Predict the structure.
Amino acid sequence: MLEEVRQGVARRVAGGGPRPHLSVVLVGHHPASETYVRHKHRDAEQVGITSSDHRLPETVSTEEVVELVGHLNADPAVSGILVQTPLPPQVATGVALEAVDPARDVDGLHPLNQGRLLRDEEALVACTPAGILRLLDDHQVEIEGRRAVVIGRSTIVGKPVAILLLRRNATVTVCHSRTRELDEISRQADILVAALGRPHFVRPEMVKEGAAVVDVGINPVDGKLRGDVDPAVAEKAGWLSPVPGGVGPMTRAMLMWNTLKAEQLRRP
Amino acid sequence: MLEEVRQGVARRVAGGGPRPHLSVVLVGHHPASETYVRHKHRDAEQVGITSSDHRLPETVSTEEVVELVGHLNADPAVSGILVQTPLPPQVATGVALEAVDPARDVDGLHPLNQGRLLRDEEALVACTPAGILRLLDDHQVEIEGRRAVVIGRSTIVGKPVAILLLRRNATVTVCHSRTRELDEISRQADILVAALGRPHFVRPEMVKEGAAVVDVGINPVDGKLRGDVDPAVAEKAGWLSPVPGGVGPMTRAMLMWNTLKAEQLRRP
């Protein structure tokens, strides 16, 4: 459970060794990003991880982001570096993310980490997909040999969670906006992951009776967060990871886990 | 078609600029590897790419492989580097493949290239998955919106071809040894890719009438190559890429394509 993950990190941090440090880079003043970054610092404090905040103006160039990241890469006190996305349009996101030292890439978005994930090698895994697997395990959802359907094929969630489910021996289908007869496919799922970013898109008739459903959506609607899953699905699903709650907080907990892991990986 | 790919490379090589050079590293005397390497040098010669052969004894250490690769990385005349697998058991394959300069990784097996593939960024893509897509296109197989089923989840074929099919807007399912009711799933496929490595595993009753079937298997049986697809599938499939032929030669042609691409990518 969520508290177990947090306490597990806190216990290990308190257990000795250098205290992990998380550096967060925020460009501009995207309101949701401001909130996320604030949460990350608070989460870090709660588990005993130190953190620092690095701000750049909205008008910054790709080179300036890369330069800041380079300074953080060179700082031996920094265990993990997170560049908060989205970045302003003039900043090349791929270049900025690839500038982060892969060994400090606690967001797991560096292509080297994503490639190692694909290759089933040791990697820092993106926090949301890692959190989804942790939630499934916490709720004793059987994965091996089951049909998993992932709706959404993003780089941050859809594709990496599909790889993680495959590694755990699920049979995995990835669906998206061009998928035909989606309802029929999603009804075959023992595990259904909704990560497409459309509020209440998954309706009860798309869900198999008793399926485990993971809602990854965070769609702001009238000042509230709505998931990708219609709450009525709860009556049909065997288990539903809800929004708010569920994946969001677990993603934040996995970031703390990754920061600790990054610190441990670089120790001799 | 295959000849078009080869001629396309040959025409571009002849068209000017530095002639690409492919360096092939072979450790030991694995008989199939010897054959593959010989083919690669012949293919290169036929399209006007120069190549060199670098042999290491069967008993070599990981460090010695990495050292040789490092020399090749440092040689400005080398456009592409290929470390022939399988490597002997004492050599850490991941370490050896990761030693190759990603910009010269014409086999597309470096995790950085596989991560860029996952992220839909410019990458050197592994030759077999790239060849499968080329074959489908050559045979005017519609991919967008179709159901694709990949049997096999290897790092070299199954997972990367799934990502390439997803990028082309197919709805993709990856099956494997732990998949239940495989026949039922494979019968839903408009495009069926068999890459599991079991001779004649895919039988006609597993195939939808009219489906496009790509046989990626190369299983030696009684001195002959057998694919993963029972030849009787040809009567049911709309199109079958056969073994021998099909994916094998196209994979070789894609290696030449990647060598040319690597040379072009590093030009200013």
